[in-house]
């Protein structure tokens, strides 16, 4: 393998261009040297990698299979070099964070403001999308750090718990009063389940999946509901009396304390969820990531 590494590089560049002449120009070696290297690699692997013609070279089936693997290997090497360059840059660093709009506003923003004030030389970029998309960006090395709900199963990344959050249902008192008057029922719980309008996150949201699982476990089925894409809109819709919204309790604490919103129960309390930061294990000790994570209090 070691002695063939340069051969793999020549093979890779030739496959990218589909032309020995272009590969020779990029690698600064002669065309005969390119052809000789490819023949050596084919002899070593005992396969034919290219079909040659007057127009250039085309990968064979075996060649294409090898190319896919070699491309991933060289991509990994490029990423490693980029990581080293970032780590040893002269006082210049970048921190790319992936987070949902909701967690960014209610959890991340205060700490982010403090971090930027203390480390103005660090370039911070925020990518707002769902937790699933955040995980994908992290795996593809498009972000350095993600704030997400704790994934199920064994984690291949470094995960630092931050806090637990509680999902709950809220609405205005006037909505409840008008609902009872309209339906004329003495049983508020049954009236809620059969006639209330519930507002839930859309079904692609990890919060929605957690809620659906909790309701199903307790045999609760909601007859009428609206899907809303963001937590902010769920909160605002509930505040104007549009219906009963499924929100995160910590994010409406002021509204609950002032009486603008009130909590309702449909059965046993929904289990709490954990949120935290996630990053690739080899990068958890990089200065910008380590410094940022140290700003957050230990989870208890």
Automatic annotation (TrEMBL):
Q: Which organism is it from?
A: Candidatus Fusicatenibacter intestinigallinarum
Q: Which PANTHER family match?
A: HTH-TYPE TRANSCRIPTIONAL REGULATOR (PTHR30126), HTH-TYPE TRANSCRIPTIONAL REGULATOR CITR (PTHR30126:SF64)
Alphabetically ordered keywords of this record: DNA-binding, Transcription, Transcription regulation
InterPro entries attached here? LysR_HTH_N, LysR_subst-bd, WH-like_DNA-bd_sf, WH_DNA-bd_sf
Q: What is the protein named?
A: LysR family transcriptional regulator
Recorded GO MF terms:
DNA-binding transcription factor activity; transcription cis-regulatory region binding
> Which CDD domains does the UniProt entry name for this protein?
PBP2_LTTR_substrate
Q: Which family does it belong to?
A: Belongs to the LysR transcriptional regulatory family.
Q: Which SUPFAM superfamilies match?
A: Periplasmic binding protein-like II, Winged helix' DNA-binding domain
Domain called HTH lysR-type: residue spans: 1-60
Q: Which domain of life is it from?
A: Bacteria
Signal sequence bounds: none
